[in-house]
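FORM 7B: Structural annotation worksheet

SECTION A. Query
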Amino acid sequence: MLYLLKNNEDINKIKISCYIAKEVLFYISKYIKEGISTGEINDICHNRIVKYHNAYPAPLGYMNYPKSVCISVNDTVCHGIPDYNYLLKNGDILNIDVSICKNNYYSDTSKMFFVGKISKKALKLCNITHNSIYYALKYVKKNVSINIIGNKIQEYINNYNYSIVKNYCGHGIGKNLHEEPQILHYKNNSNIIMKPGMVFTIEPMINIGSSKTIVMKDGWTVKTKDKSLSAQYEHMILINNNNYELLI
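SECTION B. Predicted structure
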């Protein structure tokens, strides 16, 4: 078996971690404005997680990652390292990725934020990226192959002149930040069947231009190779007897 099924105790503890992640993303929204640094945003999130929720920011120290959240701006696809020298400017779009460990159970979620007035093409990219998840969710239920997720995201994105990043994927989550199965966001032939008790993320990364990416010298920051805009949203899903529950 390539995945772990969660029992009721597991699910209840995962939901506590999910609540914290959701609250932190809501809390940080009021600070997203022109002139604030991504380093400062990181510190605000860190303090909210640690001091208010008595939880731990899962990225901090994970494979030597140096910060508590990932912040990816404009052409950064994922894993952007917060920086006190990077000040947000009008028109920026950014993804803030929050992962929490509470009582030894993990949550992982992200969303896009806008600084001031953004371009129509940036807004459309973000909307389409988010909509692709909900399009795929219409087909998610127990006893169906997990490849339906990537197949339907690809089907939806094919209606637009965008590309799907294939280097990174969603994942199972629970007592570990990353577990099996992998959740691919493009057409694939995975034969894993969704069963009640499975918990995983869906987190497509969609680019306006090419799907090709490049990793920066810091070893973490992933950018679009052609410097085009990228967007990502991440939700956590529980498969149950009523198809699924959106945990966050």
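SECTION C. Observations
The longest helix spans residues 8-28. The chain has a mean pLDDT of 97.

SECTION D. Sign-off
Analyst initials: ____
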